[in-house]
Design goal:
Length: about 260
């Protein structure tokens, strides 16, 4: 499944799932544009190290996904966008009546509206090239819900709906749009939560993982960033050319319940 000669733009990709997806796309031969809202030396070093490791062109472009103009400028600065992976996201947990408006607005902007802006900017490039793949990183929470995550659940449901619309508008072209819906994925952010969760519930870390963090994930195993990345590579391959407008759950059986 070679993606040689293609350029992939991955939002929110200097760590976690986004970085894992970027690495798998680079491994498959795609040139990569990494992104986050920071513009640090280590961000550009990350790109340089990936370029050396995989032998493809890797650039880092800073852009704030909470701002529509930044989202569109990211695609324009990339210069080409054969593959767009909308991954950027944040989270906040709170009851609806206490949910801070500023947090709601930020989550909707970064998790959902950014996908509209980047897709709107990327589709003309894909149409001109005669080929394109849009992969939206949604969530199990794009298909189901949990209490106290109102903004995140609303945004991810919105991403799934927008995925379907994008697929329908490009159905007669060699452009597809699909959403990956991960459950809990093993990332440094999740790793950092494990000790505090264990302490809170007076459990061992192993018990906290199985009984609290992975409570709704029947496999009782985290998905890995490599598995999410591999799914993205598949969706960009010729084997998936007739897969569009759908979701692929990588959630250990969560949404089968």
């Amino acid at each position: 499944m070679t993606l040689s000669g293609k350029t992939a733009v991955i939002t929110g990709s200097n760590s976690g799932i986004g970085l894992g997806v970027a690495r798998e796309l680079a491994r498959a031969g795609a040139n990569v544009v990494l992104n986050s809202f920071t513009d640090r030396d280590e961000d550009h070093k990350l790109a340089a190290d990936m370029e050396a490791e995989f032998g493809v062109v890797v650039r880092y472009i800073a852009a704030d996904m909470s701002k529509g103009e930044d989202c569109r400028a990211l695609i324009e600065k990339a210069g080409a966008c054969d593959i767009l992976v909308n991954n950027a996201g944040i989270q906040h947990v709170s009851p609806i009546e206490d949910f801070p408006t500023v947090k709601w607005d930020a989550i909707i902007a970064i998790n959902m509206s950014s996908a509209f802006h980047t897709t709107a900017a990327a589709l003309p490039m894909m149409r001109k090239a005669g080929w394109g793949r849009v992969v939206n990183i949604a969530s199990a929470h794009g298909l189901t819900a949990s209490p106290y995550k109102g903004a995140y659940v609303a945004a991810k449901h919105g991403v799934v709906g927008f995925t379907k619309v994008t697929a329908l508008e490009t159905a007669k072209e060699d452009i597809t749009c699909n959403a990956i819906c991960p459950g809990y994925v093993h990332t440094p952010l999740v790793d950092a939560q494990i000790p505090d969760t264990a302490k809170k519930y007076n459990m061992t870390e192993e018990e906290a993982i199985e009984k609290v963090i992975l409570e709704r994930q029947p496999s009782k195993q985290f998905a890995t960033v490599e598995q999410i990345g591999g799914t993205a590579v598949f969706l960009c391959s010729d084997a998936a050319a007739q897969i569009t407008g759908t979701t692929i759950s990588v959630d250990g059986g969560w949404t089968a319940l």
